[in-house]
């Protein structure tokens, strides 16, 4: 299962959207560690692409299950 991470960056109109093989808890730990160290948030997507964002520029991080590849309706 992949996890979709949406990252809001200050002074930028678009958010970054990354699909990763990390778990929700894994991404949360990476974000918390980056914030505690006042460093950078580094995430690797499902294709191996690495995204690095300075925590000073983070507006928000939204972590949730990816809906990519799913077909159907929810009631």
Please summarize what this structure is.
With 75 residues, the protein is an alpha+beta fold. It is built from one helix and five strands. 17% of the residues lie in helices and 40% in strands.
The number of helical runs is 1
- List low-pLDDT spans: 69-75
Q: What distance separates the N and C termini?
A: 21 Å
Strand-and-helix sequence, N→C? EEHEEE
The profile of the biggest β sheet is: 3 strands, antiparallel
What does the model show?
This protein has 75 residues and is of the alpha+beta class. It has 1 helix and 5 strands; from the N terminus they run E-E-H-E-E-E.
Descriptive keywords:
disordered C terminus, 5 strands, 75 residues, SH3 type barrels, alpha+beta, three-stranded antiparallel beta sheet, 1 helix
Q: What's the arrangement of secondary structure elements?
A:
Blueprint: E1 3-9, E2 16-20, H1 24-36, E3 40-44, E4 50-54, E5 58-65
Antiparallel strand pairs: 1-2, 1-5, 3-4
């Amino acid at each position: 299962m992949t996890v979709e991470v949406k990252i809001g960056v200050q002074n930028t109109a678009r958010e970054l959207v990354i699909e990763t093989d990390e778990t929700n808890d894994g991404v949360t730990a990476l974000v918390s560690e980056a914030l505690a160290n006042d460093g950078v948030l580094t995430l690797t997507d499902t294709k191996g692409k690495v995204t690095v964002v300075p925590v000073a520029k983070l507006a928000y991080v939204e972590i949730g299950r990816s809906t990519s590849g799913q077909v159907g309706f929810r009631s």
